[in-house]
Amino acid sequence: MAGLGGGRGQGNAAMRILAFIGFIWALPMSVLSWLLLLFLAITRQVVYVKCNKYFVFDARINKDGYFFKHFFSRRGFVGFSLGNTIFLPNFDLVAFSTIVHETEHVYQYYVFGILFLPCYFINSICIYFFKKDKHSYYDNWFEVSARKKAGQVINISKEQWPGGPDRRWIFW
Description:
- By secondary structure, this protein is of the alpha+beta class.
- It folds into two domains: 28-94, no CATH class; 115-172, no CATH class.
- It is globular and about 40 Å long.
- The protein contains six helices and four strands.
């Protein structure tokens, strides 16, 4: 699914069919993302939403809104994906690598469907308890895969971990 980017003719049509099947498999998670999107739209925190040919929604969040300030800024998030929707701040320039990274998570949802989040958290928990020299977020297979696809740094040194080398759990 990671190669959903191009090609002509039958290959391109086949990729759209695979994307549609993945979209259906990820539908329960996508419905959650749409409910969040609806809430953000009602509270005027969404600047715009676009959909590409592989059913990936790109939602830009108002950088002056409550959701951005308390979810993105406070936690240091650049973006996140839920189902087939990527949520990014509405900056004048969002790094292309960030868009590719988050889109790769959408494709992971297309492959894992409703099992994506449990698999993601199980991977983080296993890293935390069984790999003492690794970080539960930076060394998570799903994150490494997305960073690799986006051409981002894959191996994050302990000195670069938020909170230092002793803070290995990103979720609290």
